[in-house]
Design brief:
328 residues; alpha+beta; Peroxisomal Thiolase, Chain A, domain 1; five-stranded mixed beta sheet; four-stranded mixed beta sheet; 10 helices; 33% helix; 25% strand; globular; binds acetyl coenzyme *A
């Protein structure tokens, strides 16, 4: 166990990433062909989404998480057995319990790590990463796997065209390791439970059946306004905590929900579009998986270089939001 001395900070360093998208891309026109009363022009014009991926019946959050995790571990260069912390961010777990993290741990063959899920909807990965960073910084844990995995297609109402065209499935993972050099520099997390009703799946499992509504419901315009308001503010808060200006960030990776939210946020932060990683066009909104999917893409294609500062941020149901700034 590495214990911090008063002069030495323990950083959580990101040393591996991986991701997985199920099946083939499904275009907006494919949705029209499936009978949804919509158009490519409406979806692309309002959201920037062209494609999303949908999991097959046997593809669960834990199975997709396993593929993303294997890829992240391969990049990190160590075995799953060496992990001492596994956190999965998901709102679409395989079961009520056990957690996706425990199912993933079993599939990875790790028998000692702490493993649990975090549920903060689309900002879940930011919450999970911030928790892992605190565990590592405290000296109690050294090697953490942090995953965002979702099958939102399972909770979409295909009769509700205002929501079913927005979401997709996938998983992304990162490996964090204790280090003397940065590392995660700062994190910021928030929630406002008074806004719980604007984005929810209000059904309950009770007495052997589902009571209430098991589908995702969203007040789109309220979500849009809240998202733009909080994302720029939490980015500023996180950068301030690290002692840098938002303009000093090399890459912004925001939650991939809507290109108009992403553009408004980066504009408020004074960041040019070239510094923003955007995957919403090809992935749709994959909730907690969206940030690690985009992060993995930008690491693997060489955009994110060693030593650069990356700001990731998310916003989602709850209402929850947060940001994390790290040096790669
Ligand atoms: N195709 C065609 N027409 C549609 C569709 C569709 N898929 N969906 C809705 N419409 C129609 C509506 O029926 C309405 O028609 P009307 O004017 O005849 O009544 C019209 O389009 C406008 O509907 P609005 O809901 O007012 O559309 P709006 O401009 O608000 O755009 C949208 C909707 C895209 C959902 C927008 O509100 C938005 O992006 N909100 C943020 C959503 C988001 O990012 N959510 C995720 C963040 S948190 C998380 O990730 C879980």
């Amino acid at each position: 166990m590495m214990r911090p001395s008063s002069s030495q900070r323990i950083y959580a360093r990101l040393i591996g990433s991986g991701s997985f998208l199920p099946g083939n891309p499904v275009s907006n026109d494919d949705l029209v062909a499936r009978g949804i009363e919509t158009s490519h022009e409406w979806i692309f014009g309002r959201t920037g989404i062209r494609y999303r991926h949908f999991a097959a019946a046997e593809e669960t959050s834990s199975r997709m998480a396993k593929i993303a995790a294997d890829r992240a571990l391969a990049m990190a260069g160590f075995e799953a057995a060496e992990l001492d912390l596994i956190i999965v961010a998901t709102s679409t777990p395989d079961y009520v319990f056990p957690s996706v993290a425990c199912l993933l741990q079993g599939a990875l063959g790790n028998k000692k790590a702490a493993a649990f899920d975090v549920q903060a909807v689309c900002s879940g990965f930011i919450h999970a990463l911030a928790i892992a960073e605190k565990f590592i910084a405290s000296g109690s844990h050294r090697r953490a796997l942090v995953v965002g995995a979702e099958v939102f297609s399972r909770i979409l109402d295909w009769q509700d065209r205002a929501t079913c065209v927005l979401f997709g499935d996938g998983a992304g993972a990162v490996v964090l390791e204790a280090a003397e050099t940065p590392g995660v520099l700062a994190t910021a997390l928030h929630a406002d439970g008074s806004q719980a009703g604007i984005l929810s799946v209000p059904g309950q499992v009770r007495e052997g059946r589902i009571w209430g509504d098991p589908f995702l419901r969203m007040e789109g315009q309220s979500v849009f306004k809240n998202a733009v308001r909080v994302l720029a503010a939490v980015a500023e808060e996180c950068c301030q905590a690290a002692g840098i200006s938002c303009q000093a960030v090399d890459w912004l990776i925001p939650h991939q929900a809507n290109i108009r939210i992403i553009d408004a946020t980066s504009k408020k932060m004074g960041l040019p579009p070239e510094k923003v990683v955007v995957t919403v066009e090809r992935h749709g909104n994959t909730s907690a998986a969206s940030v690690p999917l985009a992060l993995d893409e930008a690491i693997r294609d060489g955009r994110i270089q060693k030593g650069q500062r990356v700001l990731i941020e998310g916003v989602g149901g709850g209402f929850t939001w947060g940001a994390a700034l790290f040096e790669f």
